[in-house]
Automatic annotation (TrEMBL):
The chain crosses the membrane at residues 116-135, 141-163, 175-195, 215-237, 244-269, 281-298. PANTHER family: AT15442P-RELATED. The lineage of its organism: Bacteria, Bacillati, Actinomycetota, Actinomycetes, Pseudonocardiales. It comes from Amycolatopsis pretoriensis. The keyword Protein transport does not apply. Keywords: Membrane, Transmembrane, Transmembrane helix. It comes from the Bacteria. Pfam families: DUF389. This is Uncharacterized hydrophobic domain-containing protein.
Length: 315
């Protein structure tokens, strides 16, 4: 279940209540007259089945509430109510399969901003990957995969492509276009410092001996397959209630590790491995976005096909 709050101008409140009353997936409808201060108006609250959220939000946005008032959604972990049970049963489909499109756009938009936090995480992840390469540590490489925040902008690119949202495409493009070069430049400085000081030993840059991390730069068809499977799983997780699956996505692709390996290989003068690592990075980025966009298109088409047949009225 989701908890919906809508700030309504007084002249729109009745229509908003009609929208919520008419939908079988609504429970616990409450109206607070004059409760909203800024913007002034009424506050309408309801618990709604997740599979009904997209349609209800669209209807409320059709009343202009996203401009004249406000609409917020909040996940409910527990709802002990017969009315809530009936709403979930009446709403067609399964909650875990439902896509709340406005929620998806908001989430990917927020996670694709090239802010200080995003750049810091990406840089730290790239540095971790470089350490993993220098120490021949697959465990450290996995740690870099988990820390890397790049899936947010990649998901935003897929959403932007499918929904034709230029703002998401630009924002995600800036995040990736600025983030990876910055992280690699900082990692380059760190790798040069390590080589100058010899802190990791004389053999750290002898990459031909680091067989434990060869998978990072070995680009090929398997790399594309893994990237596409990860992109598909990641988009399924973001569009459903199974967000915990994102952790598995993070540790299945070698985007950040490939960037870190490319830098270390360049410092070591291993240009063939450097170019292969760059190719690995590009294959992973493109594969993730392509698969995520395909999954999103399929889910969108499937949801559209169900809208025409599902009942909206309780009666």
């Amino acid at each position: 279940m989701l908890h919906l709050r809508a700030v309504c101008p007084p002249d729109v409140t009745a229509r908003a209540l009609d929208v919520l009353r008419a939908h079988a997936g609504t429970a616990h409808l409450i109206a607070h007259r004059g409760a909203a201060v800024e913007p002034a108006g009424d506050l309408v609250e309801a618990d709604i089945a997740r599979e009904a959220a997209d349609e209800i939000v669209d209807a409320l946005c059709g009343l202009g509430l996203d401009h004249t008032g406000g609409i917020t959604l909040e996940a409910l972990d527990t709802a002990l109510s017969d009315a809530a049970d009936r709403a979930e049963e009446a709403a067609p489909g399964e909650g875990a399969d439902a896509v709340v499109w406005e929620e998806l756009v908001a989430r990917t938009g927020e996670e694709s901003r090239a802010n200080v936090t995003f750049l810091a995480f990406l840089t730290i992840a790239c540095l971790l990957a470089a350490v993993g390469v220098l120490t021949n540590s697959a465990v450290t490489i996995v740690g870099a995969m988990v820390v890397g925040p790049e899936f947010g902008p990649l998901a935003a690119l897929a959403v932007g492509l499918v929904l034709r949202r230029g703002d998401l495409l630009r924002r995600a493009g800036v995040a990736l276009g600025v983030g990876f070069p910055l992280a690699m430049v900082v990692t380059l400085g760190g790798a040069l410092l390590v080589r100058a000081t010899g802190v990791f030993g004389e053999k750290a840059f002898q990459l031909e001996q680091n067989h434990e991390v060869d998978f990072v730069f070995s680009v090929g068809v398997p790399s594309l397959v893994v990237a596409m499977l990860a992109g598909a799983a990641g988009m399924l997780a973001m569009t459903s209630a199974k967000s915990a699956a994102l952790v598995g996505v993070f540790i299945s692709v070698t985007t950040v590790p490939a960037a870190g390996y490319a830098v270390v290989a360049a410092v070591a003068g291993e240009w063939s491995r450097c170019l292969q690592s760059v190719g690995q990075l590009l294959v992973n980025l493109l594969g993730i976005v392509a698969a995520a966009a395909i999954v999103l298109t399929l889910r969108r088409n499937g949801q559209r096909s169900r809208v025409g047949t599902r009942p909206l009225s309780r009666g």
